[in-house]
Amino acid sequence: MVRTIGRFAALAALTLATSAALGQQIEDRLVIVTSFAKELTTPFAQAFEKRHPGTRVEVQNRNSAAAIAFIRETRSSPPDIFWASAPDAFEVLKKNSLLQKYAPKAQGLAGKVGAYPVNDPEGFYVGFAASGYGMMYNTRYLRANNLPAPKEWDDLKKPIYFGHVGISAPSRSGTTHLTVETILQGEGWDKGWATLLQIGGNLVQVSDRSFGVPDAVNSGQYGVGIVIDFFGLSAKASGFPVEFVYPTVTTIVPANVGIIANAKNRKAAEAFVEFLLSDEGQQILLDPKIQRLPVRLATYDKAPAGYPNPFKDPKFDAAVNFDVDVSEARYELTNSLYDRLITFRLKELNAAWKAIHDAEARRGANAEAGRLIAEARKLASSVPISEKEAGDKAIAGSFQEVKPGQKVAGRQAEFEEKWDAFAVKNYAEAKALAEKALAMK
User: Fold this and answer.
1) pLDDT tens per residue, range 128-148
2) CA distance 182 to 323
3) What residues contact 289, with CB distance under 8 A and at least 6 apart?
4) Contact 229, 244 (CB under 8 A)
5) What is this structure's pTM?
6) Terminus-to-terminus CA distance in the chain, angstroms?
7) Among 99, 208, 226, 114, residue whose Cα is nearest residue 165
8) Tens digit of pLDDT for each residue in 43-89?
């Protein structure tokens, strides 16, 4: 009997020792910097902590631009994981030697989404989900305001949508930056900016946070929001009266996770990457409050009917072949240009396009009025810098992310001053020309 008790005690001691050893396989802390909302991060953090008892996950929420700046500033004692939807933000970190390589052990994952690699070919970050860009709209709002459901970016240029559309600033949202860059790459620099400026003329709001747009559409504050797909898909799955549509000019790119260089909790970081790519982690993406597109192919077998599948659905075949290098090279310049032409000049841009729409509606057959309107359109659709200049390292390299309240200097300040003056002058002249055309009989 004594021997039996002794054997049980020894077995129990061995079990405890084994459990303790397993618990020590990864660190007791994991620090994640992410642009994702708590609706996504909380389920993953809780599931990961359950899988790895004794490890506490600390989530710090920052938009992509702010996260890049934070990781740069804390490089001597950085967080462990960067987790976001913006592949060009990961490229910025990689080129600044702020990420470290890791090759996941997970199997059954897609290698590409369209022509785009799911994982960084050099191994510095990996895709855990795919994302597309488009429009969500509130069906009740559209019915109440007699608005048709938009299908393409060109629809949002139409006068009928004036004051009914919202977007977040690309300088504050990595996903909006990707949307802007997708339009620029899909339509070309000049035509793309013309599209953005004409849509800008109809905007009621440029939010300083990406979550503000789906919240406003869900609540009926305005009817249409330019968003990443999961905002619209998750809102619909959660019961809001909304729909989401992918326009023809869209792109499907991976949402990524990367381990930050010099991460203190390296083993915990690696375990988190593996968890994201595991069968359990990928199924979390199907949660109605999350609604992301998994990269584990077998996960789609468990998805509800009608769930988008970028690896099979033919509607994604025409997606823009997104060039992350082009986007990364002009990242801050593009954000600044959008702010100077649209975000900070929204009232003036609204006024110019409202005058143009009014003049077009009443111009009749007057040839001179038509000429004035065409000139007004040109002024309100133009940008002060060419695509070649925007891709020039000497120019684009002078731009950096600016924190609220921070003053810019050097060439960036010079360009932004010129762009401000360009916007003020062009929009005022466009408005005046349209009003002159309107007054003609």
Assistant:
1) 999 889 999 999 999 999 999
2) 9
3) 39, 40, 43, 234, 237, 238
4) yes
5) 0.82
6) 111
7) 226
8) 999 999 999 999 999 999 998 888 999 999 999 999 999 999 878 88
